[in-house]
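My current task is to audit a protein record that another person submitted. Thanks in advance; the entry in question is below:
***
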Amino acid sequence: MSDHSEATVAPVEAYEPPYYVAVFTTVRTEDQEGYAETNARMEELVKSLPGYLGMDHAQTPGGLGITVSYFRDADALTRWRTDVEHRTAQKRGRAQWYQSYSLHVAKVERSHGFTRAGAPRNPAVD
């Protein structure tokens, strides 16, 4: 969701399945007025939800943004999807900030990871 350029680069850890992911892929418009502030608020809001596990984000030089959000269960994902403040941001995104987007939701059935000894950890999950 945000630029994360100052954050340690590390993926969200592999959790014990099952859990859910929401993959939000976007191309933004030229008009980004208010986006940074709303984006920061949405990150703050989702992190406060019970069942939220973390988020990975990448942006290509060509402008494709990919955000993967991780949730412990379907109820947590539903709380995020139906949150009133989030719904308002979604509407503004369609009206102003996104040229196009896709959302894919999946249940994770297998998960594993690797971290080299001494490598920095993702501060979002510590």
The CA atoms of residues 37 and 69 lie 19 Å apart. Strands lie at 19-28, 52-59, 64-71, 98-108. The radius of gyration is 15 Å.
